[in-house]
Design brief:
This protein is an alpha/beta fold and about 350 residues long. The chain has two domains: about 10-225, Type I PLP-dependent aspartate aminotransferase-like (Major domain) (Aspartate Aminotransferase, domain 2); about 225-335, Aspartate Aminotransferase, domain 1 (Alpha-Beta Complex). It has eleven helices and 13 strands. It has helices at about 10-20, 30-45, 55-65, 80-90, 110-115, 135-140, 190-200, 210-245, 270-280, 305-315, 325-335; strands at about 50, 75, 95-100, 120-125, 145, 155, 160, 165-170, 185-190, 250, 265, 285-290, 315-320. Strands 1-9-8-5-4-2-3 form a seven-stranded mixed sheet, sandwiched between helices. It is globular.
Length: about 350
């Protein structure tokens, strides 16, 4: 049986939580929605949060909260998810593209210093759970909307994912750090920013809020988050030891930082097709790590972000989700140790 490259981890507790919601015959935003917000606030320590029906809706609300006018420039990494550019375009905003560090795929400080002038805000993607260097936040000089969908739990010194921006987005889609079967949580860490978000959220209609069934699943997943992260850390340690035998490298967190260990991405100098074919032969699925990014989908001007373009073609993601059992973990580790 193939080991999926990406997967949500739905357990019996999650199913029971959803069933408890279903028997109420009320799937609109209500009691379970409020329970989810309470559980998330207690676990992640923000001042105020809003749960909406998609990451695009969360970014749209963030733009409204920041008061960005049409024509304003928003900076973002070339490895940002494609939906982020769609949301920016829909608001009549213009992108400014940042290149990344090849070692980890995080936004490069040098690129921000060169291109952030004139940005009214920055959408900061942290792909595969890797945060950028702390110096980046001093270089930006504009409000930051931090996407912690995969970086939840990461940190560098006193900086932790979710506290580096004016607002933070936690996507709740399939195969995210936690899932609600769809949707996103937008939060403000500080009281001042929380008041601004509260005021903007008051204009939302019920159809924009996360429904109770999704919220019930999300609440259960929040409670399991630490267990999920512990399992990912165990897998990451096993995989790193195995990969060292193949003399290939993985994406790494810069400096002394602690990555979220959301996934395991191998960066190849050549032979991507051969490596993926070899893994598939061993019943291990892989994926191109940045296949859903703006750079991969031709949304970034050619030649403007060469490091991002290089990673799009060379970075391969191996399965590292909490559903992987001991036998499959050993199988993946063996594949990593013997990559062609």
């Amino acid at each position: 049986m193939n080991v999926q490259a990406a997967s949500s981890c739905i357990r019996r507790k999650d199913m029971d939580s959803v069933l408890n919601c279903l028997v109420t015959d009320n799937l609109s935003s209500g009691e379970f929605h409020e329970r989810f917000l309470k559980a998330a606030r207690e676990r992640f320590g923000f001042d105020y949060g809003v749960a909406v029906r998609s990451p695009m809706a969360a970014l749209d609300l963030a733009v409204e909260c920041l008061g960005l006018a049409r024509g304003a420039v928003v900076g973002l990494s070339a490895l940002s998810p494609a939906w982020a550019l769609r949301a920016i375009d829909a608001r009549g905003l213009s992108p400014a593209w940042f290149d990344v560090e090849e070692e980890g795929g995080a936004v490069a400080v040098s690129s921000v210093e060169e291109r952030a002038t004139g940005c009214a805000a920055v959408y900061l993607a942290e792909p595969w759970g890797i945060m950028p260097e702390p110096a980046l936040f001093e270089a930006i000089g504009a409000p930051v909307v931090e996407d912690v969908t995969t970086s939840l739990g990461a940190g560098i010194g006193e900086r932790v994912a979710g506290s580096n921006g004016v607002l933070a987005i936690l996507g709740l889609e399939h195969a995210s750090a936690i899932t609600a079967g769809g949707g996103a949580l937008l939060w403000a860490a500080s009281r001042r920013d929380g008041m601004a978000l509260r005021n903007a959220a008051e204009r939302l209609v019920p159809e924009e809020l996360l429904g109770d069934m999704n919220s019930a699943l999300g609440s259960s997943q929040v409670r399991e988050f630490d267990r999920f992260r512990e399992r990912r850390s165990e897998l990451a340690e096993l995989y790193a030891q195995s990969l060292a035998r193949s003399r290939k490298r993985a994406l790494v967190q810069a400096g002394e930082g602690e990555p979220a260990r959301f996934g395991f991405v191998v960066v190849l100098e050549s032979g991507v097709k051969d490596v993926r074919a070899y893994a598939k032969k061993k019943d291990v699925e892989t994926a191109m790590a940045f296949e859903g990014s703006c750079a991969a989908l031709g949304m970034v001007p050619e030649g403007s972000c060469p490091h991002a373009a290089s990673l799009v073609n060379r970075a391969v993601a191996f399965p590292m989700h909490p559903r992987i059992n001991k036998a499959n973990a050993q199988r993946i580790a063996k594949v990593l140790a013997t990559l062609p």
